[in-house]
Structures are given as structure tokens and as C-alpha cells.
Design brief:
Elements (H helix, E strand, L loop, with lengths): L1 H17 E3 L4 E2 L3 H29 L10 H16 L3 H11 L15 H7 L3 H5 L15 H16 L8
Antiparallel strand pairs: 1-2
Helix pairs in contact: 1-2, 2-3, 2-7, 4-7
Length: 168
């Protein structure tokens, strides 16, 4: 996951620079801006999906949920995680993010510590954005930093459990 994480970090920084109006998250209509918005949104969603499925596969002996809806995948993962560990997944994700020095800037973390809300905002980003720019021209979840942060927290849980997450 290291390569995907680094790509997302670079894309997030580029998207930050491309925003025109931070209140509406409107993106310039130029091809570079559109490309950065699409790439960032799809990569952050893919990174989060990959992290969810990796942890879930470890809990299920190799199988994981299907599809790309992050909220559905996350809800199933949370159920599996809490049944197997007796711990609260949201709290563990936040704990991992906060304990990892320089993991993610505090402003990227889910608002009010609501991990599920961060996932819900970007739940369909992969499907909505992978074939191009949505007609609205707006990022409904703003810059997808919340998804990146959730994915990073899940990856840290995998590392702590000494699971292999991709090419770690």
C-alpha cells in the first residue's frame, strides 16, 4: 500500500493547489484540474477500498466483500472486526491515526471523530469518478482527505496485527 499512499499524498497536494473556491470546492474546468480531481478522488477511494478488503480478508480467512461501495464494505468490515476482536473499529482507526507521528495532518481527520461519516461521504466516489468528471463539477466530500485518513488508519491496524497489506 506504500506506493498507493504516496501517490494519494501527491495528488491531494496537487488538488489543494488547484481549488478555486474552498467553500464550494469548485474545480477549474481545465484539463489539468479535471485530471487531478478525477485521479485524486479515484485513488483515495481505491486506497480506502483496498485497506477495507485487506483487513476483512484477514478476518475472514481470505475472503472479502465485493463491489466498490465503501459504506457497505465498511459496515461489513466493522461487524467482522468487532465480532472477532471485541473492539470498536472506529475508535481503533482514530487511535492508530493519532498515535502515528506525522501520519495525517489533524485537519484531514474525520470531523468530530466520525469515521463512518467520512466513509459515507466518499462511499461512491470510485463509481462516480472513475470514468470521468461528474456533471456537477463538485467534490461532494470536498477533498477526499477523510477517505485517505480512514485508509491510513486501517493500514496501521493491519501493520500492528502484522498482516501483509499489499507490498508492505
Amino acid at each position: 500500500m506504500h506506493g498507493m499512499e504516496q501517490a494519494c499524498r501527491l495528488l491531494l497536494a496537487d488538488l489543494d493547489r488547484e481549488l478555486v473556491d474552498r467553500d464550494s470546492f469548485a474545480i477549474k474546468k481545465g484539463p489539468r484540474s479535471i485530471g487531478i480531481a478525477v485521479a485524486t478522488t479515484v485513488m483515495c477511494a481505491l486506497l480506502c477500498e483496498y485497506a477495507i478488503k485487506t483487513l476483512q480478508a484477514s478476518l475472514r480467512g481470505g475472503s472479502c466483500g465485493k463491489g466498490h461501495n465503501l459504506l457497505e464494505l465498511y459496515d461489513k468490515l466493522k461487524e467482522d472486526y468487532e465480532k472477532n476482536s471485541g473492539k470498536n473499529l472506529d475508535k481503533d482507526i482514530l487511535g492508530e491515526i493519532q498515535s502515528a507521528e506525522a501520519c495525517c495532518p489533524s485537519e484531514w481527520q474525520p470531523t468530530n471523530g466520525d469515521v463512518k461519516a467520512a466513509v459515507e461521504l466518499g462511499a461512491t466516489n470510485f463509481n462516480d469518478w472513475r470514468y470521468g468528471y461528474p456533471e456537477t463539477g463538485e467534490l461532494k466530500d470536498g477533498i477526499p482527505k477523510g477517505l485517505f485518513t480512514v485508509a491510513k488508519g486501517l493500514e496501521l491496524i493491519c501493520r500492528r496485527a502484522q498482516l501483509r497489506c499489499g507490498s508492505l
